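Input sequence (183 aa), recorded before submission:
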Amino acid sequence: MKEVLEFNHKKQCGLWLMLIGVVLIISAVLGGRFLVNPFVFLIGYYACFFGVNVNKKLRKKLSQGSISKVQIRMIYISIAALFILMFAIAGPFIPGWHWRQIWLGVLLATAIHFLLWFVVHGPSMIMLGIVCIIIAAVGYMNPGIPLLWIVVADAAVKIDFGVYLFFFSKPSKFGAEAQVSGL
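Predicted structure, token format:
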């Protein structure tokens, strides 16, 4: 019998997306020669990561139920995939310090890794991934569009999805039993 996936951590994901969206915007505005300031981004990223994802008290407060072993395993797989994708997509541009290509690669890798998060947070992650892939693709196909606009668009989408997950989305289920019972 297939496992029913329960998506009970949408609020945590929503908060994370809202915060990382804000960090992206601030990093892009302060980008300078890096286009997106990597120092501001990394400090903000890790502060938000530890503040939201490592903070057990906050995780417990935001959780609306349990998480399965399959979902925990997918968290680790998707994080590993994110770094592999960043290395493969953005990595080739690091030796020449081609900042636009590096940041577009980071955005694209992140967008692709959202697709794997379906298992953890539900179907909205597929939509988020697709929209962010499109934004990154627009950046690749249109070098005349300032990277700032691409990053702000990507960040705005993350913030919007974060608001939806945090404030409006309810825990849900996916799987054979959930479909049969109408959940």
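Checked by second reader. The mean pLDDT is 93.
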